[in-house]
Amino acid sequence: MKTTNASVGSLERFIPNPKAKLLDQVREVIRFKHYSIRTEQAYIQWIKRFIFFHHKRHPREMGEEEIQTFLTHLAAQQKVAASTQNQALNALVFLYRKVLNMEPGGFGEFERVKRPAKLPVVLTKEETQRLLAAMKPGTLSLMARLIYGTGMRLMECLRLRVQDVDFERNQIAVRDGKGGKDRVTMLPQAVKEELRQHQQRVKILHETDLKDGFGNVYLPYALDRKYPNAERQWGWQYVFPSSKRSTDPRSGQLRRHHTKELCLQRAIKEAVRVAAITKPASCHSLRHSFATHLLEAGYDIRTVQELLGHESVETTQIYTHVMQKPGLGVKSPLDS
């Protein structure tokens, strides 16, 4: 394993505190690069598993062979999914290249998990209406309808800020989506007034927090240092805040974060049961259904691609395989 030249691109490379423990160094680099807290937690866990798998040897003492052995173990013995194995690989490559400043070598020899081709779980319009009707009125129901009506991912919905919703232009700005990209989607008229009333209630909650000496919210990319008062401003507050304050795992501050994803996931699961839907539908199924129903309505696939935030139109094309009238609407000879 080779050590890379630290002087090359030194302005772009963050050198963690050499006296800190290894996992603390990993956290330093991750936070310098503005990775999400979920990525940080996942990478830390994979690095721990890698070290314990090799009987607590330091990663500097290991290399390509040990990495390949670990990844093969995940596929052959642990039977993990392809995405899980890829995440483990990404964590180890990050550790060696970004933290230890070492080149781990090639990765062509380990046993890769074969990623099976799967079609997305898509609900019909009738099933979608049954699911949404089965949800109890309230914030979670509003969130579910917003996901179906906009095509947002679950976390994109949860991380919405007040300033991202433009009632005048009937649009929602999705910030820092998958791949760190921003995009714009529509604000459905069907939820516009309910969302406006919801925000009025959230504003009262925020004003109460301010009176109690709180009201500050997490800001990305160190904006709290650039704009010291922004974290308490109304525009930066979450549209769907948590009902309770919690301690930020990074800063240690007590603040109000957004609603936990598990709350909506459980509500959707219960609604699927109540609506007697046999498909294994989830929050993401509402996003899949959004795309499929737009294509069935005749909208251009490029337009749907932009609304979903897909980098490639090939990703969007998977929905043409589950449309009620796929392709050119070919009929089965049995139906002729």
Task: Give an overview in words.
This protein has helices spanning 22-32, 37-53, 64-76, 82-99, 125-134, 139-150, 154-158, 189-211, 223-226, 261-274, 283-296, 301-308, 313-316, and strands at 2-3, 102-103, 165-166, 171-174, 183-186, 246-247, 254-255. Strand 6 (246-247) and strand 7 (254-255) form a beta hairpin. Residues 5-11 have low confidence and may be disordered. It is globular, with a radius of gyration of 23 Å. Helix 6 packs across helix 8 (189-211). It starts with a strand and ends in a 20-residue tail after the last helix. It folds into two domains: 2-103, Tyrosine recombinase, N-terminal domain (DNA polymerase, domain 1, Orthogonal Bundle); 125-321, Intergrase catalytic core (hpI Integrase, Chain A), CATH 1.10.443.10. The longest helix has 23 residues, at 189-211. Strands 3-4-5 form a three-stranded antiparallel beta sheet. The chain has a two-stranded antiparallel sheet with strand order 1-2. It is mainly alpha-helical and 336 residues long. It has 13 helices and seven strands. It is 46% helix and 5% strand.
